[in-house]
Design a protein that fits this description.
The complex is a heterodimer. Chain A is mainly alpha-helical. Chain A has helices at residues 3-15, 21-24, 33-47, 58-78, 81-92, 104-122, 126-140, 144-157, 162-174. Chain B is built from 13 helices and 27 strands. Classes of the chains: A mainly alpha, B alpha+beta.
Chain lengths: 184, 532
C-alpha cells in the first residue's frame, strides 16, 4: 500500500461530511445516469472493502469503510433520475450545508412530487383517469364524437383539470367541420 | 502469508460443498470416497462422536432421534415462528425452546443451539479439505441464501466461528454462483441467477463486467425449496395409503422418514427418467400384525400437476426481482440455474418459457456456489492481488428493508431493500420523559409497515447519555449494514458526540460467552471417519 493512497484516504475521510454526493463520486453536477454508474464502478474499484480485507491496519480499514459507505449512499440517490434532480436543486441552493445528505424528508418530497406529476398527467380520480385514457384512444382512432363525449364526462369528475380542458380544445379544433349546408 | 489457504463453503439445507482456488482456478474438494457434495446431516453416535455427510444421511432411519438434518431451515429463527412449529411436527429429532425464544435441538439430554449443529457440518467440510489438501485450513468464505435476514446471517457466521474457522466473509449464494460463471470471462451481461435449493429460493439479477459484479436486485422466499416438492409426493402417497389401508403413515415418525426418503428418490427419478417406481417393502404393520408395503408409480404429468403452484411461486419472486431491477425478461442475457431441484424438467421448461431463452448449460448446479465462494476466499486472502486492482468486486445489496418500531405497532423505514451494501444511515431520537436515562428501540427487517409482520432483529437499549428535560436530549442512532449483510447499531449523544453504550436485550442469537463455550465443546467432538 503506497503512502500516497493512504494520504488520499485520510484526506477524503476527513472531508467526507463537507462533500456532496457528486464530489463523493468525483462527478460533475451535470452527470447523467450512465456517468453515475461508471463513476460508481470506478470508486468501487478504489475503495471496495474486499480490496483491503487482508490489510493489517484496522484504522485505515475503518476510514476506507466510511468512504465506501458514503459512495454507496451517493450512488443510491444519484442513480435515480428524480432523486438526482431534487438533490442537485438542494445542494446548489442556499441550504446546501444542511442538504448534503439525502434523508427521508427529501425522499418523501420526491415521492409526493412524482405522485403529483402522475396525477396531473392522468387525472386525480379513478373515473377521470379512465375516461381520459379512453379519450386518448378514441382520438387516435379519429372517432371525434366519442373522444369529445369521454372528455366532457371526465371534466364532470374533475372540472379544474387543465390537461382535460386542453385535450378537449384540441379535439374541437382538429375535428373536421361538418358542412352545415351539405345535403346528404 | 502467501502460503495461507482459504476455502469456500456452500452450507446448504440438504447438501454442502467445499472448494478452493488452486493453480489459477476454483476446484471442488472431494472427500476420500470421491464425493463432491455432502449431506448436511449430523448423526450423534453413542460413543460421543458425530457422523456427518452422506453416511450420516443413511442413519436418518436407523438413528432417527439422534440425527439432525435440514438444520438450516431453523437457523436464526425464533422458537415461536411457523417454520419451527412445522419442523417440530415432522422432524424425528427433538426441538426445544432455548433462552430468549431461541431454538435448541435435544440429543440424549444435551441441548444444542442450531449454529452448533451447523458448525459440525462446517467442521466436516474443513476436515474434508484438510484431508485432501494435506494441510491445515483455518479461513473460509461461507455462503448463505441472498434472502437471509440479519438473524440468519449472524447465526451462520457464529456457526463458522464455532467450527474454529475465521469467516472472511458471508456471501450470498446467487452472487457466488454469478462470480463462478463470470470469473475470468471478460463479458458484459445482465444475468439472472435462479437458485432453488433444498429449503430456500433466491433470485438475483446482476450486471456483470470484467471485474465488477453488481447485484441490481434480489428477491427470495426462505420457505420454498426442494423439500416442499418432496412433501407434495409424501402427501400424495400418504393420502392414498390412508384410503387403502386406513392407516396414516404420517402419525409415526419412523414411517414418515421412510416415506420421505422414498419421496425424495421418486422426485429425482421422475425428473431423470420421466417416471418413478416407488416401492418400500414393510413400511408399517397393521395392529393385527400384518406387514404392509408401499408400491406406486409416479409419472411426470402427475408430478408436474402436484408441484405446479410451487413452480409458479418462484416466478412471482422473479417478477418482483425484475421489477426492482427495472428490467424485463427480455433484457436478461443469460440465466443460471443453481441448486439440485433445477435439474427437474418442469423447472427447466418453466424457466425457458419465462425468460424466453435456454438456461446456461455446463454449470453444475450443486457445485457452482462453492466454486464462487472459493474465488472470493482467494481474493480476500491475497492482499497483493486485491491491492493491485486485479480482483473482482462484488457489489451486493441488502435483500430486506431495515425498519425501526414506532408507536402503535408500526414500523418506519430506515434502509430500503436492494440498497447497495455496506451502507449506513442515521436517525435522531429524542427522549419522551423528563430525566429519561435510557432509550429503547426495536429493529426489524421486512416489507410491511406493521412491526408484527416483520422479522425482529433485536431490541437495543442505549444509556449513558446526558440527562435532561424531555425532548431536550437527542440521540443519534446509526444503522450500519456491513459487507456481510449484517446489521450493526450504534448510538451517540447528538450534542456532545459521546457514544452511548448499547445493550441488546432481545435477540435470537448467541452471546459472546455462549459462543466461546460452544467453540470449546465443538473442538472436543470427534468426527467419525476422520483421524484427528
Amino acid at each position: 500500500m503506497d503512502i500516497d493512497f493512504i494520504m488520499e484516504v485520510e484526506k477524503r475521510a476527513a472531508a467526507l461530511d463537507q462533500m456532496d454526493y457528486f464530489e463523493v463520486l468525483r462527478l460533475p453536477a451535470s452527470a447523467g445516469g450512465a456517468e453515475v454508474k461508471a463513476a460508481y464502478y470506478r470508486e468501487s474499484r478504489a475503495f471496495h472493502p474486499d480490496r483491503f480485507a487482508a490489510l493489517p491496519a484496522p484504522e485505515l480499514r475503518d476510514l476506507i469503510g466510511r468512504i465506501y459507505r458514503r459512495v454507496n449512499e451517493a450512488y443510491t440517490v444519484l442513480r435515480d433520475d428524480a432523486k438526482r434532480q431534487r438533490y442537485l436543486a438542494d445542494v446548489t441552493g442556499p441550504e446546501r450545508a444542511r442538504k448534503l445528505r439525502f434523508t427521508e424528508v427529501e425522499e418523501t418530497a420526491v415521492k409526493d412530487e412524482q405522485k403529483k406529476k402522475l396525477e396531473e398527467q392522468f387525472g386525480q380520480t379513478p373515473n377521470g383517469r379512465k375516461l381520459y385514457a379512453s379519450a386518448l384512444q378514441e382520438l387516435k382512432a379519429e372517432r371525434w364524437e366519442a373522444a369529445e363525449r369521454a372528455l366532457k364526462t371526465a371534466l364532470m369528475y374533475e372540472p379544474a383539470n387543465a390537461k382535460f380542458k386542453e385535450l378537449l380544445g384540441q379535439v374541437e379544433r382538429e375535428r373536421p367541420k361538418a358542412d352545415p349546408f351539405k345535403i346528404k | 502469508m502467501s502460503d495461507d489457504i482459504a476455502v469456500g463453503i456452500d452450507l446448504g439445507t440438504s447438501y454442502s460443498c467445499v472448494a478452493t482456488f488452486l493453480e489459477g482456478k476454483p476446484q471442488v474438494i472431494p472427500n476420500e470416497w470421491g464425493e463432491h457434495t455432502h449431506a448436511s446431516v449430523v448423526s450423534f453416535l453413542p460413543d460421543g462422536s458425530v457422523l456427518v455427510g452422506n453416511s450420516a444421511k443413511r442413519s436418518i432411519i436407523t438413528n432417527a432421534e439422534n440425527t439432525i438434518y435440514s438444520a438450516k431451515r431453523l437457523i436464526g429463527r425464533f422458537f415461536f415462528s411457523d417454520e419451527v412449529k412445522k419442523a417440530q411436527a415432522v422432524m424425528p429429532y427433538k426441538i426445544v425452546e432455548g433462552p430468549n425464544n431461541s431454538v435448541r435441538v435435544e440429543i440424549s439430554g444435551r441441548a444444542y443451539a442450531i449454529p452448533e449443529v451447523s458448525a459440525l457440518v462446517l467442521k466436516e467440510m474443513r476436515a474434508v479439505a484438510e484431508t485432501t489438501l494435506a494441510r491445515p485450513v483455518n479461513k473460509a468464505v461461507v455462503t448463505c441464501p441472498a434472502y437471509f435476514n440479519d438473524n440468519q446471517r449472524q447465526a451462520t457466521r457464529d456457526a463458522g466461528r464455532i467450527a474454529g474457522l475465521e469467516v472472511l466473509r458471508i456471501i450470498n449464494e446467487p452472487t457466488a454462483a454469478a462470480l463462478a460463471y463470470g470469473f475470468g470471462k471478460d463479458i458484459n451481461q445482465k444475468i439472472c441467477v435462479y437458485d432453488l435449493g433444498g429449503g430456500t429460493f433466491d433470485v438475483s439479477i446482476l450486471e456483470i463486467g470484467k471485474d465488477v459484479f453488481e447485484v441490481l436486485a434480489t428477491a427470495g422466499d426462505t420457505y420454498l425449496g426442494g423439500d416442499d416438492f418432496d412433501d407434495r409426493i409424501m402427501t400424495w402417497l400418504a393420502e392414498d395409503f390412508l384410503s387403502k389401508h386406513q392407516l396414516d403413515l404420517r402419525q409415526n415418525k419412523f414411517c414418515l422418514q421412510m416415506l420421505k426418503e422414498a419421496s425424495e428418490r421418486a422426485k429425482i427419478d421422475v425428473g431423470r427418467d420421466g417416471s418413478a417406481r416407488i416401492h418400500v417393502p414393510a413400511i408399517c404393520q397393521t395392529p393385527e400384525g400384518e406387514v404392509l408395503e408401499l408400491a406406486h408409480t409416479l409419472n411426470a404429468d402427475e408430478f408436474n400437476r402436484m408441484v405446479m403452484d410451487l413452480v409458479q411461486r418462484t416466478f412471482k419472486v422473479c417478477d418482483e426481482a425484475m421489477q426492482s431491477a427495472r428490467l424485463t425478461a427480455s433484457d436478461v442475457d443469460a440465466v443460471i440455474l443453481v441448486g439440485g431441484p433445477t435439474r427437474l424438467p418442469v423447472i427447466r421448461n418453466s424457466v425457458r418459457h419465462y425468460f424466453q431463452r435456454e438456461p446456461m448449460t455446463g454449470i453444475d448446479p450443486d457445485q457452482v456456489v462453492a466454486l464462487g465462494a472459493s474465488i472470493q476466499a482467494a481474493a480476500l486472502l491475497n492482499a497483493g492481488v486485491a491491492a493491485g486492482g486485479q480482483a473482482t468486486y462484488l457489489l451486493d445489496v441488502t435483500p430486506l428493508t431495515l425498519q425501526v418500531g414506532t408507536v402503535g405497532g408500526y414500523a418506519e423505514r430506515i434502509i430500503g431493500k436492494n440498497t447497495p451494501i455496506p451502507i449506513e444511515k442515521s436517525k435522531t431520537f429524542t427522549t419522551s420523559r423528563d430525566g429519561q436515562d435510557r432509550v429503547k428501540i426495536r429493529v426489524y427487517q421486512g416489507e410491511s409497515n406493521r412491526a408484527e409482520d416483520c422479522e425482529m432483529l433485536g431490541e437495543f437499549e442505549f444509556s449513558g447519555f446526558r440527562i435532561g428535560y424531555r425532548g431536550e436530549v437527542q440521540i443519534e442512532v446509526t444503522f450500519e449494514i456491513d459487507p456481510n449483510g449484517i446489521v450493526n447499531v450504534a448510538a451517540a449523544d447528538l450534542e456532545t458526540g459521546r457514544r452511548a453504550s448499547t445493550t441488546i436485550s432481545l435477540s435470537s442469537g448467541l452471546s459472546e460467552q455462549e459462543i466461546r463455550t460452544a467453540i470449546d465443546k465443538n473442538s472436543e467432538i470427534a468426527l467419525s471417519g476422520h483421524a484427528t
